[in-house]
Amino acid sequence: MEARNIDPQDVEVLPPEGKETVLLAGYKVTHVQWTAFEAFIETNCYTDACRIAGICEKTLWTWRKQPWWDAAMDEFIRRNQDRFMARLAKNSVKIADGLINVAAGKDKEDKTANARVQAAKVYAEMGDKPLINRRHDVKIQNTTINAGVLNIDKVRELGRDKILEIVSGSVAPPQEVME
Hints:
Number of helices: 9
Strand order of the largest sheet: 1-2
Number of strands: 4
Number of domains: 3
Distance between the termini: 70 Å
Largest sheet: 2 strands, antiparallel
Order of helices and strands: HEEHHHHHHEEHH
Strand content: 5-15%
Low-confidence stretches: 1-14
Radius of gyration: 25 Å
Helix content: 40-55%
Mean pLDDT: 75
């Protein structure tokens, strides 16, 4: 069965025009593999993707476990997140106005107030430097070690390399960080 044409604007992870293979994650990805990947992105169904690409499901499952598939998927997700963020940025005034209206109680009978607040929250949590940062940084909490309890404020002063040495067990924590 012949593969359907998938709009490059929808997928945005395609090999260069006219090339049979493309190098991705150190792997030469063939036209059939790209067709299967694109079909999976479009249908979100292994069976349909296999039918469109003309391959068996075992082949697709094998490809799905290869680094090129993960690299293509990561790139696809990254580009769609960028596109989503751009659309939110273009509408940031509307988002802010909606949030202000909800906070001011202007829409007392509005059943979409919660959805608008959640949309504003999503906007504030997006991007590399979000207004609301819920990303977890690696934090070491006060931990009991066989030598005692670490003073977390003093541990922070040690620096990343020294902390990694302590965590790996290659060196003991210095006495000044012990309580």
